[in-house]
Amino acid sequence: MTVSKPKMVCKTPSYLSKYIAGGTRRRTTKIAFHYTGAHDVKGINTINNWFNSINRGEQGNRYASSHFVMDLDGTIYTYIPMKRIAWTTNAANYYSIGIECATTGNDDHYTDEEYVSMVKLGAWLAQYYGLDPREDFIRHYDVTRKICPRYFVNHSDKWKQFKLDCYNYLHGKLKEKDIRNCTNGKGNSKIATKSKKEQTKATKFEIITLDKLNIRKVADWDADPVTTVKKGQHLQVIDTVDAKNGSTPMYRLESGLYITASDKYVKKV
Ligand SMILES: [Zn+2]
């Protein structure tokens, strides 16, 4: 399962001054989330009026930037190239990717479009760097105790939910259409659980018996066989289960009965 790279709009300046970019980062073990600091200010304004001004040296000795900026309409802007160091997360700059997110409302939550983009970007970055969103996504707060990103510092349960959404999206358990913005009070993303029928369909396969074999009513090696099958029989398997009183697992057949799963006696076809 792979997630595709989300659409991004490049806003990388043609010249990167020392005020916004450091050298090449040697490792990337964390993805750090931030908020831009004032609600209902567009991400593009943060780039144009803040980062670009810093880049030109207009803010004195101020160093600040990030790799990505998320906007209220869901646009993902790239700013500092991913392989370079950005001045976003203080001591973590040398091993992290920094993402600045625009916010809305007095509590600095995220818009629905932005939240979906945050999940898609987060999942893609986790895939790119081989990270686990549940462990390797951090808030600026986790490094400096600064109240950033404000909503996720004030609502750590929603921070946990966001990381879980990224994880589930990364592993194909959460589809884009099912992503729910957990920061606007309308509930959390729900993982669609497969019906029993779908699960059975997904795991169903055929075996051929390599010998005359016992069939049991329960997955228990001590249970008396209810019948036997001849060598060369084709059978449909719907599940593999641990069997009692033995270390060899058993296959549950379409008939609801059990047969050995040992590849000495049965072979997948
Ligand atoms: Zn921050």
Overview of this protein structure:
This protein has helices at 43-55, 112-129, 133-136, 140-144, 150-154, 156-170, 196-203, and strands spanning 9-10, 21-24, 30-35, 68-70, 76-78, 84-86, 96-101, 137-139, 205-209, 213-216, 225-229, 234-241, 250-253, 258-260, 266-268. The chain is of the alpha/beta class and 269 residues long. It folds into 2 domains: 9-178, Peptidoglycan recognition protein-like (Lysozyme-like); 196-268, Roll (SH3 type barrels). Helix 2 (112-129) packs across helix 6 (156-170). The protein binds zinc ion. The site of zinc ion has 3 residues, from loops.
Short key terms for the protein model shown above:
single chain; 269 residues; alpha/beta; Lysozyme-like; SH3 type barrels; 2 domains; 6-stranded mixed beta sheet; 5-stranded antiparallel beta sheet; elongated; binds zinc ion
Describe the protein's topology:
Blueprint: E1 9-10, E2 21-24, E3 30-35, H1 43-55, E4 68-70, E5 76-78, E6 84-86, E7 96-101, H2 112-129, H3 133-136, E8 137-139, H4 140-144, H5 150-154, H6 156-170, H7 196-203, E9 205-209, E10 213-216, E11 225-229, E12 234-241, E13 250-253, E14 258-260, E15 266-268
Parallel strand pairs: 1-5, 3-7, 3-8, 4-7
Antiparallel strand pairs: 2-6, 4-5, 9-12, 9-15, 10-11, 12-13, 13-14
Helix pairs in contact: 2-6
This protein binds zinc ion.
